[in-house]
Design a protein that fits this description.
This protein is α+β, with helices and mostly antiparallel strands. The protein folds into four domains: 56-196, Serine Threonine Protein Phosphatase 5, Tetratricopeptide repeat, CATH 1.25.40; 207-298, Immunoglobulins (Immunoglobulin-like, Sandwich); 369-534, Nucleoside Triphosphate Pyrophosphohydrolase, CATH 3.90.79; 540-685, Nucleoside Triphosphate Pyrophosphohydrolase (Alpha-Beta Complex), CATH 3.90.79. It is 40% helix and 18% strand. A hairpin with a 2-residue loop joins strand 6 and strand 7 (283-284). Helix 3 (52-75) runs antiparallel to helix 4, helix 4 (79-88) runs parallel beside helix 7 (116-124) and helix 14 runs antiparallel to helix 15. The longest helix is centred in the N-terminal third of the chain and has 29 residues, at 168-196. It is extended and about 110 Å long. It holds the Pfam family fn3.
Length: 690
């Protein structure tokens, strides 16, 4: 008999015995696991047990208990307990795909009792069906055998209970009888579920899109009806023929968390037809053809003959920097003070002496001038000096105002913190027309070196996009860096931010706050900005809105506060690729007088990209507070699709040419809602590059 063969196989492999066979036993076991099991299991690596062999023995014991508890939770159809166990333990710890003594897996029980929520939870955790059920006949025979043997066991125990006089053995047999009656009902329910089930319907929808010049992306949705049996896998097939003869390839999808698949290794310019079928325990259902019925792998860049904008740029910049270093190796820049006039030489020598003097340390108070501060944070803690001060060093005590160009130059220097010493050697202070600029920048480099030396840290992080200025004439440039690991430093220590803010309030003047007070008041906002600046977009095609505003000394760009390293945007779709056909449509649309699509353009209503853009433009207009009727004056940037890596691409929506950049004093009739800020264009470019 098949059941006996499976039991023999389990015994031969020294598998575990069956778990508790009654609901009460399952509840008791689960309660035990819910409490002490998790705590005890985590103690294996803490040296609480003596001897590696004893540790391994106890570990296996707990794994067996967790597996038995999972089986019982599935049999009892207890979704909450199943989800709890899947959350706390890995598939390996649960022994998720090892059959029990009846040759069943947890997923088998879930699908044959038609418990769709539990089956989906198990599938997402990586559960499989039993490999022993190679055909419908074998599954039917196995279930019939389980039902028959359970019924036989129930009859035997019932006869023993009826015929024997009441005693301890009789009481034990009554317990066994109840357990087997419960299991008999379970097997009958599983058998009835299997017999009632039918093959699933076709997937409700199959969407086909072009992922690249050699791949297609297939996205599909569950069948509307699974005919009383959970779908456990899907099959994707592709062919150059609409009849799918011959078949070029197929793929089985059994990881059902995300219902999509990318077909790789296709020939560019060739049309491929795709269909998808669903499978349950009764077999494969009918296939569903894709929409559109075929697709041609392509990419707009390859069709247009344009290489990616950033290809080779990093290598070219590294090569250029190497050339500059080579030129400066024997340059007079190595002796920056030798040929300086006496007045300049005295100023620079004083700065150098201050830098290397043993008493050189962080500043406690600010006196009218230009300063540099570095904020290092981890969770809710910040690095401070032993005097509980944020690390601050002086750049220039005679500097009355910060020229924007000097500040933007410093933000670029932040991309090469490791090269500060070399940069100092190359920046000369002369009597030329640029001497004031060079003096300021040389002092900036000296201050950076001093900060690095006092902290013992080279990388000072990212420069905040605007300096802090107070009424006393102080200007504070702020750098921000998150520390991921638990590091200790000699000259600084970790302090909770709230504690530092509280102590600072007690000594500061609320009427005339200094730049340091202003920094502490807004430190959480600056840390939030820094963290958001490192966030990345999920893969996809986006519609971005380019809006600039100019001032006397800079141009600023509108960005969302939640993602300040990216333009204001909405997501068009998850597929970042623009195909040849879509690119041709964009070029055609750019040639008409009103290129932004409107609903009256019925000749394009069947274009998926057209429909996606319609939705995205409405959403973007609402986001930036612009009436949708104004969209007729906006245009899509049609010169290229902006690629940010391989997985993110942008189409740009541009305002009318007169409104792309708002001039100083010019009124902007449409003010964006809260949640936006404007960054200096150069700062935005640096953040986007990172």
């Amino acid at each position: 008999k098949m059941t006996q063969q499976m039991r023999d196989l389990q015994l031969a492999q020294a598998r575990k015995p069956p778990g508790p066979s009654s609901p009460n036993a399952a509840k008791r076991l689960y309660r035990n696991l819910s409490g002490k099991f998790r705590v005890n299991y985590t103690s294996f690596d803490e040296g609480s047990l003596v001897g590696r062999g004893e540790k391994e023995k106890l570990r296996k014991s707990y794994l067996f208990q967790s597996n038995a508890a999972l089986f019982e939770a599935v049999e009892l159809q207890d979704l909450d307990r199943v989800q709890e166990m899947l959350k706390h333990y890995s598939p390996e710890e649960l022994d998720l795909n090892t059959p029990n003594s009846e040759g069943l897996l947890p997923l088998d029980i879930a699908i044959m009792t038609n418990n769709a929520p539990i089956a989906r939870a198990l599938l997402q955790a990586g559960a499989k069906e039993s490999p022993h059920f190679v055909s419908l006949e074998s599954r039917s025979l196995h279930l019939s055998t389980l039902v028959r043997e359970a019924e036989q066991r129930v009859n035997e125990l019932m006869a023993q209970v009826v015929n024997e006089a009441p005693n301890a053995d009789c009481s034990e047999k009554e317990k066994q009888l109840k357990a087997w009656e419960w299991r008999f009902r379970l097997y009958k329910r599983m058998k009835a579920g299997f017999e009632h089930a039918r093959v699933p319907d076709a997937p409700s929808s199959v969407h086909l899109s072009v992922a690249s010049s050699s791949s297609l992306q297939v996205t599909f949705w569950e069948p509307l009806s699974v005919n009383s049996a959970v779908v456990t896998k899907y099959k994707v097939e592709w062919s150059c023929s609409p009849t799918f003869s011959p078949l070029l390839g197929e793929a089985m999808i059994d990881k059902l968390k995300d219902l999509h698949f990318t077909i790789q290794g296709l020939v560019s310019g060739t049309a491929y037809h795709v269909r998808v079928s669903a499978y349950n325990m009764k077999g494969w259902g009918p296939p569903q053809a894709s929409t559109p019925p075929f697709a041609i792998p392509s990419n707009w860049r390859e069709y247009d003959g344009r290489a990616p904008r950033r290809r080779g740029q990093a290598e070219a910049l590294d090569h250029l920097l190497g050339q500059v270093k080579t030129v400066h190796q024997h340059c007079i820049c190595h002796e920056p003070c030798k040929n300086q006039p006496q007045s300049r030489k005295h100023s620079v020598s004083k700065s150098l002496k201050h830098l290397f003097h043993p008493g050189s340390k962080f500043l406690k108070t600010l006196k009218r001038g230009l300063y540099l501060t570095a904020i290092f944070y981890k969770d809710d803690n910040i690095l401070v000096t032993h005097e509980d001060q944020i690390p601050v060093v002086e750049i220039d005590d005679t500097y009355s105002c910060l020229l924007m160009q000097d500040f933007l130059w410093l933000t670029k220097v932040s991309c090469m913190w490791d090269e500060i010493l070399w940069l100092r050697q190359c920046v000369t202070v002369s009597q030329s027309s640029c001497s004031c600029i060079l003096q300021t920048r040389f002092k900036m480099l000296l201050a950076i070196s001093q900060m690095q030396g006092l902290l013992g840290i080279q990388d000072l992080g990212q420069v905040f996009f605007e300096p802090i200025k107070d009424k006393q004439g102080n200007i504070l440039i702020v750098t921000l860096k998150e520390v991921k690991t638990n590091q200790t430093f000699e000259s600084v220590r970790w302090v909770p931010i709230c504690k530092l803010q509280t102590s600072r309030k007690s000594v500061s003047s609320p009427e005339e706050p200094t730049a340091l007070d202003m920094l502490l008041i807004s430190v959480q906002d600056k840390l939030a900005y820094h963290q958001r600046s490192s966030h990345a977009l999920s893969p996809g095609l986006y519609l971005g809105y380019l809006k600039l505003c100019s001032a006397v000394d800079q141009i600023r760009v509108l960005v969302p506060e939640q993602l300040p390293n990216i333009l204001c945007h909405v997501k068009i779709r998850s597929n970042p690729n623009i195909s040849r056909e879509e690119w041709e449509w964009l070029q055609k649309m750019a040639s008409v007088e009103e290129p932004v699509p409107t609903e009256t353009e019925t000749d394009r209503s069947q274009n998926p990209l057209f429909q996606e853009l319609q939705v995205a433009i409405k959403e973007l207009m609402m986001l930036v507070n612009i009436p949708f009727q104004e969209a007729k004056d906006f245009r899509l940037y049609s010169q290229e699709v902006l690629d940010f890596g391989d997985q993110v691409s942008f189409l740009l929506l541009l305002p009318p040419s007169d409104d792309v950049c708002t001039a100083p004093g010019q009124n902007n009739p449409y003010t964006p809602r809260s949640g936006f800020l404007t960054l200096p264009l150069q700062i935005f470019e640096l953040g986007e590059e990172k």
